[in-house]
Write a structure and sequence with these properties.
- This protein is mainly α.
- It contains 14 helices and 2 strands, in the order αααααβααααααααβα.
- It has helices at residues 3-23, 27-56, 58-68, 71-82, 86-115, 123-146, 152-180, 182-185, 199-231, 235-247, 249-260, 264-292, 303-320, 327-346, and strands at 119-120, 324-325.
- It is globular and about 50 Å long.
- 48% of the residues are buried.
Length: 347
């Protein structure tokens, strides 16, 4: 897309969201315009990150992509934590994890498979990704099991320990995948970053896009609770499907375009890698941030959320373990996503 047109869309969506936030009382309009702005701002943030990563080199660039890849979701969740909407925070984490594994990967595999009969990628990387997601399920399952036996204070301490351990595991995974075993896990056609601007402009764009995402995220959070009540939607459904899709829109489009071009390995890396970032980095980071805000959030997820993450992980591992995909496997992933979405809507 032409950069001038792109920034016109970014600026126009931001001004529309600002007008709705400051000059109207319609919460649904505020939510809709803020959601639209977040989608374009997340795309701007993604372009900025890729451009900075190009100049930073492979190792630091990979870390930047890992850190800022889910920045929009992290910022939205931060304001949800600040408002004390812990149920919606956990639902949005759940939605981001299953959305990447089922919706993003499903569409990528389906659309890529319609053009190419079979696409292959690094099966070793798929195996490690599956093991990491199983770790995330175990880490989320343990607090839920022990919740009935421990007092709230102890649950809080357990949540902090698990959060720290998960972040450590994530950092060690970055070292393992990008430093010590990089040659074993690299794909045939790795996702390459593109320098859209000069080094200085890229850093400035990254800073500005992060600030604007933070501003609009706060507007979005201020209206989301009222909108969920007005439409009769549960916080679980809004967090798991509406907010999760909005925050991850930029990565959705990137994965689809790569799959259509025959680069399914890069698409899988974006989809599953993003789920890993949410489970191993974003979720535990929010637990620690909540302590600083004086509103401690535990890491106890509901049985519905745990079931959804478990089912999504199970079928994703089943489909990706052989390092090859076809269009029907995309249908299977999307079918599970629709089933979960319908179930969450009626909960």
């Amino acid at each position: 897309m032409n950069l001038r047109l792109f920034f016109s869309l970014v600026g126009g969506s931001f001004l529309l969201a600002a007008y709705a936030h400051y000059f109207t009382d319609n919460e649904i309009l505020r939510f809709a315009t803020a959601s639209l702005a977040i989608i374009f701002l997340a795309a701007w943030l993604g372009k900025s990150t890729e451009s900075v990563a190009h100049y930073a080199g492979d190792r630091i660039g990979g870390f930047l992509n890992a850190t800022f890849g889910n920045a929009a979701e992290l910022i939205i969740a931060f304001f949800l934590v600040k408002e004390g909407l812990f149920d919606m925070v956990k639902a949005s984490i759940t939605g981001a994890i299953i959305g990447n594994m089922l919706l993003v990967l499903g569409l990528s595999v389906l659309l890529g498979g319609l053009k190419f009969k079979e696409q292959t990628f690094n099966s070793k990387l798929a195996g490690h990704n599956g093991s990491l997601m199983m770790l995330a399920i175990v880490a989320l399952f343990i607090p839920a099991v022990f919740m009935q036996q421990l007092p709230p204070a102890e649950i809080g301490k357990l949540s902090i320990v698990i959060a720290v351990v998960l972040i450590l595991a994530y950092v060690l995974w970055l070292i393992f995948s990008m430093v010590t075993h990089r040659e074993f896990l690299s794909d045939i056609e790795p996702h390459e970053s593109e320098a859209v601007w000069s080094k200085g402009v890229s850093i400035l764009m990254l800073a500005l896009s992060t600030v604007f995402v933070a501003i609009v995220s706060e507007w979005l959070v201020h209206s989301v609770e009222q909108v969920s009540h007005s439409l009769g939607w549960s916080e679980l459904f809004v967090g798991a499907f509406v907010i999760a899709i909005i925050g991850n829109a930029a990565e959705h489009s990137a994965a689809l375009l790569l799959a259509i071009k025959g680069r399914i390995g890069a698409a899988v890396e974006i989809a599953i890698g993003s789920s890993l970032q949410i489970a191993l980095f974003v979720a535990p980071t929010l637990v620690l941030i909540s302590l600083l805000l004086g509103q401690p959030m535990d890491i106890v997820f509901t049985p519905f959320e745990l079931a959804a993450i478990g089912v999504a992980t199970f079928i994703t591992i089943s489909i990706t373990k052989d390092g090859a995909t076809n269009w029907y496997e995309g249908v299977l992933l999307l079918t599970v996503y629709v089933i979960l979405g319908t179930a969450f809507f009626f909960v």
